[in-house]
Amino acid sequence: MMKLVRIICTALLLASCQSTQPVNENTVLPVATANIPSPVDEKVFALTDSGIDLLSRSDVNRFIDNEVKHEHYSRIELENFFRQVRYRPSIIRGMDKQGTSLPWYTFVQNNANNIRISSGNVFWQNNAEVIQAVSKHYGVAPQLLVAIVGIETNYGATMGTYRIADALTTLGYHYPRRAEYFQRELAEFLQLVYEEKQDPFNFKGSYAGAMGMPQFMPSSFRQYAVDWDGDGHRDIWRNTGDALASVANYMKQHGWQSDAPIAVPVAMQITPQLQQIIDEPTALKYTAGQLRQLGVIIPAQIGNQEKGILYRLEKSSGKYDYWFGLNNFYTIWQYNHSRHYVAAVRQIANGLSYSNTKL
């Protein structure tokens, strides 16, 4: 523990002496996070310098008390950590802008366009060996792995430049609506730092605290991130093997079925009952047989007992295509709770030149 004390204390001292480097962050993100001010667009200041004394807050001290019980950090280390974090106003603005729902025809152009797919072909060509090895090991389609890191961070090009410590602290103690969640993620982050034995202020990511090529939150990192090459670190930022294996591990743990489709197109005349089913929360609730009895025409290769999700995509204003999402649709949906997201991942995966099968 004394060694770690020296690591953290040295990191905190160095952090207080370093200036912020300007970074250009031209990000096209899968969930409504475009047009969020980048870290260089705002004044950055220490919470203590701005008159915000976190250590005077009872909730911060309760957090410190709980973390000290884990015996990974001393109270002094944690107090130093909270003195060095920075308040980022653009993070709060970014969270407040969330919730704008784009129609499918706009969402797909932003996130699964030809440029995204062609960039995926280049990424696959440059990393073919590790992509195939990870896919074979986990039984997860290679095109899915490429599509996930493509839609999340444009194949690692736009992973975010916010310090994770700043993001999680800003949201944990200055965003009441989701404070409890982000305080939990801050605790997970500190455990992650302890496990990885790294400087807590070197971890960079999105304004919401998501990290690396696959944009894992700290809790997901700790549970699913993989050290693919065995070098002692789960480096989902710079190590393509670690990043892809982490995505594959997540998908496998959430029920990915090899050689099975994500979704199939269906034909139907919309009725109030079918519209109600479409509007229900996403879950594997209805079987293909049940929907066929309601008039939904589902491809014959889908057995009557197979459960799925009936959904629609707005291809142009007021005009829809209808789909039956299967088990693998739900697996991806657990990664990001958006039907549009899953559909865009599928579109990227199926558009890649190296894909042998359609998902």
Q: Would you mind describing this structure in some detail?
A:
The chain is an alpha+beta fold and 359 residues long. Helices cover 49% and strands 9% of the residues. It has helices at 2-17, 58-69, 75-84, 89-97, 104-111, 114-126, 128-138, 142-153, 164-174, 179-196, 218-224, 240-253, 272-279, 288-293, 327-335, 339-351, and strands at residues 45-46, 86-87, 162-163, 204-205, 263-266, 286-287, 307-316, 319-325. A four-stranded antiparallel beta sheet has the order 5-8-7-6. A two-stranded antiparallel ribbon has the order 1-2. The chain is globular. It comes from Snodgrassella alvi. One of its GO terms (biological process) is peptidoglycan catabolic process. One of its GO terms (molecular function) is peptidoglycan lytic transglycosylase activity. InterPro entries: Lysozyme-like_dom_sf, Lytic_transglycosylase_MltB, MltB-like, SLT_2.
Please list the strands of the largest sheet in the order they lie side by side. 5-8-7-6
Supply the number of helical segments: 16
Q: How many distinct folded domains? A: 3
Q: Structural class from helices and strands?
A: alpha+beta
Helix content: 40-55%
Q: Tell me the overall shape.
A: globular
CATH architecture heading of the largest domain: Orthogonal Bundle
In the predicted model, the low-confidence regions spanning at least 5 consecutive residues are 1-6, 12-41
Roughly what fraction of the amino acids lie in strands? 5-15%
Question: H/E order of the elements?
Answer: HEHHEHHHHHEHHEHHEHEHEEHH
Rounded to the nearest angstrom, the radius of gyration is 22 Å
CATH topology of the largest domain: the name is Helicase, Ruva Protein, domain 3
The biggest sheet amounts to:
4 strands, antiparallel
Number of strands: 8
Distance between the termini: 48 Å
CATH class of the largest domain: Mainly Alpha
- Summed over residues and divided by their number, the pLDDT gives a mean of 89
- State the CATH superfamily name of the largest domain: Bacterial muramidase
Organism: Snodgrassella alvi
GO biological process, one term: peptidoglycan catabolic process
Keywords: Signal
GO molecular function: peptidoglycan lytic transglycosylase activity
